[in-house]
Amino acid sequence: MTATSKPAKTGEIKQSTADEKAAPPKSQPVARVVLVTGGTGGIGTAICKRLAQQGHVVATTYRNEEKAGAWKRALQKEGFTFHLYKCDVADFEDCQKMVKAIVAELGPIQILVNNAGITRDSSLRKMTHEQWQAVISSNLDSVFNVTRPVIDYMLESGFGRIINISSINGQKGQFGQANYAATKAGMHGFTKALALEVAKKGITVNTISPGYIETEMVAAVAENIRNSIVAQIPVGRFGTPEDVAHAVSFLVADESGFITGTNLATNGGHFME
Ligand code: CAA
Predict the structure, then answer these.
(1) Which ligand 1 atom sits closest to the C-alpha of 167?
(2) Which tens digits make up the pLDDT trace of 189-238?
(3) Domain extents for the chain?
(4) Ligand 1 centroid distance, CA of 244 (Å)
């Protein structure tokens, strides 16, 4: 906006001035503090790398000390510096402490990617209460546990991007995943409700629903089942973690402020709503 032009009133369609049309594009996006939960996994790693490459300061959570140490060292060799925080995202108090520590050390979190998640696949007739509860706590309670302390900082700074990493199986269901599909569908309900609550505060909330991506989670599925799945993907291949990271980088951009409450399918055409 030029110094002389007036802001558009609510409901008024603002005409751009000749000066605005000629204005050069912004050169550099603002560097922000990012939290990616479960960043040491396949999709999480690609998201951390992509956001760091865009100049953001990236923090992530881990549970396994040894795995996290090896991950950090390997990525340091590639030139990345990530900030790791030990946290069980299924535990609300642990999440409150983790968020406080990040804010104290790096600054207010302005981009949050709720990515941590697990599977405990089983048909319902064989599913134990432990299998049900573990998936509900890690995949869905975690979204509340992390977003609740983070939202205060986003509201204070008047800017926020929240991305919930859901799944195609929350949209279409999947044999053997009553627990997982329930959490992934639930995440998008959370997205839509919170998107309404914070829409006027500069904060967007969106879901990404990846299809079958080349990760350890998908590699754990029996080979015959994997072969039958890939045959159902119109693009003809599993997705890559980078495919998901690309969708994240689009939704967290400053320019994406008008996109909120959406569910971005990233599944090679496997399921269309
Ligand atoms: N559709 C219909 N029937 C199926 C079936 C399917 N997809 N899969 C198995 N069955 C049938 C079997 O033929 C068998 O039939 P009979 O009883 O008549 O012989 C029966 O169901 C087997 O049922 P069980 O109760 O024995 O099944 P189980 O408890 O052993 O569980 C399973 C099987 C482990 C769930 C297995 O089906 C499986 O691994 N499925 C794939 C699950 C999957 O896709 N997970 C995705 C993981 S990756 C991920 O989640 C990431 C993401 O977001 C996409």
Answers:
(1) 53
(2) 999 999 999 999 999 999 999 999 999 999 999 999 999 999 999 999 99
(3) 29-212+244-266
(4) 25
CB 263 within 8 A of CB 206: yes
List active site positions.
180
Q: DSSP H helical segments within 78-222, as ranges?
A: 92-106, 129-135, 142-157, 168-172, 178-198, 216-219
Q: Name the CA radius of gyration of the chain, rounded.
A: 20
CB count, 10 Å around CB of 89? 24
Q: Which of 24-38, 102-116, 117-131 has the lowest mean pLDDT?
A: 24-38
Q: Residue with the nearest Cα to atom 9 of ligand 1?
A: 175
**pLDDT tens digits, 139-159:** 999 999 999 999 999 999 999
Pocket-testing residue among 43, 115, 121, ligand 1, by greatest number of atoms within 8 A of Cβ? 121
Candidate CATH numbers 3.30.70.270, 3.30.70.1710, 3.40.50.2000, 3.40.50.720; the one for domain 29-212+244-266: 3.40.50.720
Spacing, Cα 117 to ligand 1 middle (Å): 19
